[in-house]
Structure formats: C-alpha cells, structure tokens
Amino acid sequence: MSKPFDMALFLSGVLTGSKATQQRHLRQARIMQAAVLQRWHRDNPWTWKLKHVRWFLTQYLRGHSSASRYYYLITASLIWKRMSHQRHVQAFRKIDIG
Q1: Fewer CB atoms < 10 Å away: N or C end of the chain?
Q2: Cα(1)–Cα(71) distance, rounded to whole angstroms?
Q3: 50 closest CA partner among 28, 26, 14, 80
Q4: What distance in Å separates the CA atoms of residue 19 and residue 85, rounded to the nearest whole number?
C-alpha cells in the first residue's frame, strides 16, 4: 500500500508568512486535495490540470464567501508556483471567483 501524499512537504518550499498563514494554506490545500480526489480520483497536485483547480474555485466553493474564495485562490497559486506552472498562475487571476 502506498503512502498518502504529504501536502505539507509538497508546499514547504513556497510557504511564507506567519505560522497561522502557513497553517491556513496547508488546511486549504488539503481540502482542495480531498475534493479533487473525490471528484476525479487525482490524489496529488502533480496529476492535476487547470480544469481541476478551476472547478474547485468556481463550483466547489460556490456557496462560500468571496473572501474565502480569494484565500483559496492564493493557496491554488502557491500550489501552481510549487509546480512551476507560472503561466497558469496568470490564468487563476482571470477566474471569476465572485
């Protein structure tokens, strides 16, 4: 049996700011990971595509406040930064999160 994907280790190189901010990003990244896993059976960010993150930000978070969606957008940008998909970080800014 394989080990579960360690989101804390994955994001450790790009997390900055206070301990509370880092913990918030880790918590949100784990929520994103669980949602994408449940919907598309993609267990780690290395297998995600832009459509998975776009779905999470626009559909999964539909009932959340605009402030929450904004903070998830920042977390998604950190994940993409870690994966060196800089061109997609610009695409996140174009997603209408309400």
Answers
A1: N
A2: 34
A3: 80
A4: 25
What's this model's pTM, rounded to 2 decimal places? 0.85
pLDDT at 86: 56
Work out how many domains the chain is built from and give that number. 1
Name the burial class of residue 3, with classes exposed (0-12), middle (13-18) and buried (19+) by CB atoms within 10 angstroms of its CB: exposed
Helices (H), the chain: 7-11, 19-40, 50-55, 66-82, 86-94
- Token couple for 57: 């930000």
57 close to 97: Cβ distance less than 8 angstroms:
yes
Averaged pLDDT, groups of 10, the chain, 98 residues long: 85 93 97 97 91 95 95 93 69 66
